[in-house]
């Protein structure tokens, strides 16, 4: 294994979930691909699921960085206890993924092979950068390794 910290791995997982959310939302922009009355609703439902995963990943990142449940709760308008009840299982899953193989292979890849996953996300960010917004050569992997 390399020298990525647990916080860098949690940040990478959050980056991946943000990428998935952006890709899902992007698919809803075009007029094509909405065959049938429920297709747009189904697509929006998937984006909402992706947004929930991103929120979980952001909470896990905050917790691994040292935020207590009161900080998480305050950020979301929840009590510390409610925040822990809602997001504690996601943190426990992440910490388990750091220890060894799980059933969630893609998450395991992100957590166990962070440099390769970060380089993939670097490519994604560069492909989707706006004209004047130069993300630089390593927008995801650079900050994780410094």
Short description:
With 146 residues, the protein is mostly helical. The protein contains seven helices and no strands. 72% of the residues lie in helices and 0% in strands.
Order of helices and strands: HHHHHHH
The description of the largest β-sheet is:
none
By secondary-structure content and strand pairing, the structural class works out as mainly alpha
Task: Say how many strands there are.
Answer: 0
Low-confidence sequence ranges: none
Helix content: over 70%
The count of helical stretches stands at: 7
Euclidean distance between termini CA atoms: 17 Å
Mean pLDDT: 86
Shape: globular
Proportion of beta-strand residues: under 5%
How would you describe this protein?
The chain is mostly helical and 146 residues long. The chain has one domain. 72% of the residues lie in helices and 0% in strands. The chain is built from seven helices and no strands. The longest helix is centred in the middle third of the chain and has 26 residues. The radius of gyration is 17 Å and the shape is globular.
Keywords:
mainly alpha, 72% helix, single chain, 146 residues
SSE inventory with pairings:
Layout: H1 6-29, H2 39-64, H3 69-76, H4 80-99, H5 105-112, H6 114-127, H7 141-145
Helix pairs in contact: 1-2, 1-5, 1-6, 2-4, 3-4, 5-6
